[in-house]
Design brief:
Blueprint (H helix, E strand, L loop, with lengths): L2 H5 L4 H9 L6 E5 L2 E4 H17 L7 E5 L4 H12 L3 E5 L5 H11 L3 E4 L20 E3 L5 E4 L15 E6 L9 E5 H15 L6 E4 L11 H6 L3 E4 L8 H10 L3 E4 L1 H8 L12 E4 L6 H11 L3 E7 L3 E5 L19 E5 L12 E6 L6 E2 L4 E2 H4 L5 E9 L5 E6 L4 E3 L2 E3 L1 H9 L4 E11 L3 E10 L9 H9 L10 E4 L15
Parallel strand pairs: 1-11, 3-4, 3-5, 10-11, 10-12, 12-13, 13-14, 25-26
Antiparallel strand pairs: 1-2, 5-7, 6-7, 8-9, 9-18, 14-15, 16-17, 17-20, 18-19, 20-21, 22-23, 24-25
Helix pairs in contact: 2-3, 2-4, 3-4, 9-10
């Protein structure tokens, strides 16, 4: 057997341990307390597997993982998978009521949590739980049973599930995405054909592992790289720039606000070691891409990633002159833009993005829908909208549910936000539609201003600024100044 068929019964942890074996003392993870070698990480993974298996964790049990980023997060995660569990990451910043909703929707059997990250009182925790209810692991994590007998959908265990990970839910209810071990390996192989991550790479890590693991952390460890845990993006650029210098980072992987903060640094630092700067979680504004390469000499590659499909677009080919684009499809993936009439759109016209290729999701958990039920002739309908140019480079326009219908004109909030965010006094913005008697909807904006601005702009100043750069339908009808914007646990802007 070759290809995907050979990988169907594979366990990712086995591959990670095989990759770690020859690397011994090479640093796998660098955290605040010091470096953890590949050999030491492998020992932690094996200890976690043994303890979790001994506690009763087994085939296709759904186990929540609640912890901040750390080497032990990685070890326990792979330990759970090695024991046969499907890992359900729970972001530490998720409010208790949302933890409870997640646990109820996925039917958690147990949760493993780090010291300092106790879970909420989860549904089922007081019923059908045989003692002992919890066990302390060598890592300091605690395994707590929630409902040992929670039922599973027919066919769930047969998928060989590695993760049930919930989507960001920026415009609606988050969906539990089931990813098998084979699916994750397919994604890693497809992405690394473009990224070429290898033992010589050091990755500066600033994203939450609860939402970024399957194509990133798995890939970095499979290919022998070193991961520097730099914490969430800081409010200023000093800490990440120092971490890049100290550890000789070769790959940056962060959201657009991370790159905006580096652009706002008082002085440019030398980034001689950096060979790849990757932007993810949202579309990178063209002005941010231009400002970063101007200041640091390193182009930022805009990426299009989604939990249902992996990393189908990574703009490593033309990041300098097409910085706002997510590039051409990663080899193995196909994409098409489809109009309201169901026909493919020509270059330059915006429509719905459909994808097919390696590593598409195995199922949605609640309500249960298999891959065969989700895909249409092999195509996944992403819910995102975008357009191709004449060279096949894709530019994202936003989510279908975000579109504002203003007087018969389709308006994309992201494009307005990119204009607002380019104003020198604006830190970030969020645009949505508001009801209007004459035009159906009009765009309205919430804006966070940068601190220390001597003469901050007024609402009329910013509206005039937009009017000079946007169509009448795209110009915000009103602007509200706010201290902060609502976000999902992943850090994405929450639009509803």
């Amino acid at each position: 057997m070759t290809g995907r068929a050979a990988n169907m019964g594979m366990n990712l942890t086995e591959r990670i341990l095989e990759a770690a074996a020859p690397r011994g003392d090479k640093p796998a993870v660098i955290e605040a307390s010091g470096a953890v070698s590949y050999g030491a990480l492998a020992q932690r993974i094996e200890t976690a597997r043994r303890e979790l298996s001994g506690a009763g964790v087994g085939n296709a049990l759904r186990v929540g993982l609640l912890a901040d980023d750390s080497a032990n997060f990685i070890a326990v995660c792979f330990g759970l998978m090695a024991a046969g569990a499907a890992v359900v990451p729970i972001p530490p910043n998720l409010p208790p009521e949302e933890q409870q909703t997640l646990a109820r929707r996925v039917g958690l059997h147990a949760v493993a949590f780090a010291p300092g990250c106790p879970p909420a009182d989860l549904p089922g925790a007081a019923v059908r739980v045989r003692p002992p209810r919890q066990r302390l692991l060598s890592s300091g994590f605690v395994l707590r049973w929630v409902d040992r007998d929670a039922p599973s959908p027919a066919g769930f265990a047969e998928l060989n599930p590695a993760f049930v990970r919930f989507t960001s839910g920026t415009t609606g209810d988050s969906k539990g995405v089931v990813l098998s071990h084979a699916t994750i390996l397919d994604r890693v192989q497809a992405a690394n054909a473009v990224l070429n991550i290898g033992p010589g790479d050091t990755i500066l890590w600033v994203l939450p592992m609860a939402h970024h693991f399957a194509v990133t952390i798995v890939s970095y460890l499979l290919h022998g790289a070193t991961i520097v845990l730099a914490g969430p993006p800081a409010e200023d650029a000093a800490a990440p720039l120092e971490a890049i210098r100290r550890h000789g980072a070769t790959v940056l992987y962060g959201p657009p606000p991370f790159y905006r903060r580096l652009c706002d640094a008082p002085r440019a630092a030398r980034l001689d070691t950096v060979r790849l700067a990757l932007s993810t979680t949202a579309s990178l504004p063209a002005q941010t891409a231009r400002a970063f390469v101007s200041k640091y000499g390193v182009p930022v590659s805009n990426c299009y990633g989604l939990i249902e499909a992996g990393l189908p677009f990574i703009n490593v080919a033309r990041p300098r002159d097409k910085g706002a684009s997510v590039g051409r499809a990663t080899p193995g993936y196909e994409a098409r833009i489809v109009g309201a009439d169901g026909r493919p759109c020509p270059p330059g016209r915006t429509g719905d993005i459909h994808l097919r290729g390696p590593g598409l999701l195995d199922a949605y958990y609640t309500p249960w829908r298999t891959r065969a039920e989700i895909l249409t002739d092999g195509w996944f309908h992403t819910g995102d909208v975008g357009r191709f140019d004449d060279e096949g480079f894709l530019t994202l326009a936003g989510r279908r549910g975000e579109i504002i219908a203003c007087g018969g004109v389709t308006v994309f909030p992201t494009e307005i936000e990119h204009v607002l965010d380019a104003h020198p006094a604006v830190a970030e913005s969020l645009v949505a539609g508001a009801a209007d008697a004459g035009r159906g909807q009009v765009p309205v904006a919430r804006v966070v201003l940068k601190g220390g601005i001597a003469a901050p702009p007024s609402e009329s100043d910013l509206i005039a600024y937009c009017r000079a750069r946007l169509s009448p339908e795209e110009t915000p009808h009103r602007i509200e100044f706010v201290a902060s914007l609502p976000r999902t646990p992943t850090g994405k802007l929450r639009r509803v």
